[in-house]
Amino acid sequence: MSERCTNCGLELFAGQQFCRRCGAAVRPQAGDDERPTRILEGGTAGARQGSNEMRGGVGGAGTDPFGEARQTAAQEPFRVFAQTAPLAPAAPRGGRWWTLPFIVIVALACVGVLFMRRESSPSRMTVAKKGGLAKTGSLVPPIPPIPPELPEEARAAIERAGVPTPFDESGATVTDDRTVFTKTVQLGEDLAFSIPEAIGEVRIEGWDGDEAEIKVTKRGGTAEQRRAMPVMLARGDERVSLLSPPARASGGAVRVSYEIKLPRSLRQLELTAEEAEVELKNLDGAVSLDVRAGSIELKDVTGTVRSKLIKGSTKVVFGEGTHDGAQEFSVVRGNVEVDFAERASTDVKAETMDGDISADEDLGLRLVKSPAGIHALGRIGEGREPMLIKVVNGDIKLKK
Q1: Is the pTM of this model over 0.70?
Q2: Residue 276: exposed, middle, or buried by beta-carbon count in 10 A (0-12, 13-18, 19+)?
Q3: At residue 19, does pLDDT exceed 60?
Q4: DSSP string of 295-331?
């Protein structure tokens, strides 16, 4: 009768000492408590020992080990990928503290790019109107002129409301490189005339009429490009505004210049520009100029003057008369030259922080040098209205 393992019931061979399946000793051994192999929990140790015994008994012939190999400290855990769950997102580590600020910076950069693209889009238009003064942001879509059959009352109501209306260019002289036309606009001495966002050359001269004569010259580009850049007029209760098309509307190919005659005693003239060459002559009213880059020249402008120029040159010439209001000329980077008449009367204060001042001896001005720059002070003639000249980086020349 064959013997079977008392532990697992496997049939045993004659003389077999350990079970091939579970590794248990099949016969009691002397000193059972000191035998080298013991059955541990799960039978893994015994299975390994039995396997080794069998391999030794058959002369090292390889057989598959029984049971599961025990993991050592130097081994990676054995993973059965078919039985593992999908990997979950790893929790943020302490060393990744820069992740959130980096995401925020990238998001803000994307918003900034979208905003810049939106601002530079040629289809965007912004019109802000205050007191009859309108400013255009970018490309101004073509606005049809007021129909000629429109009743005069309706036309007058539109003009009084300050709605910008384009000049009718039907009678313009058009050549390959320019379009020229002249229009007449009724004004009064109590109105102000403004040119916001002027571009190119602007020449304004005072005359004895009570109306404005405006000559518009568009240069460059094609005839279609020039026609797509209308010059508009906005009339309000207190001012009349001449609205220039933005230069970027045509990619800078078209520039607009003006030659304007205004009533000599017009209450106020206002002009702003990014880049322009401005020339004023024979005006008695108040003048306000704000130019970023270019040149400003005033001749026989006797009213109150506020002139600001960021970069460029300013020149002032007085005839036989004198000015009847305070005048101030400032330049950030550039020069100022003033030519006084023989009978000029004014109190002069000129100063430059980084530059030089030259003054004719006949003017009787006193030059003072200080750590803050150079100053010229004095009274010419009887004094009367003051003249203030300020330059940050540049020279001042005073002549008589």
Answers
A1: no
A2: buried
A3: yes
A4: EEEEEEE-S-EEEEEEEEEEEEE--SS--SS-EEEEE
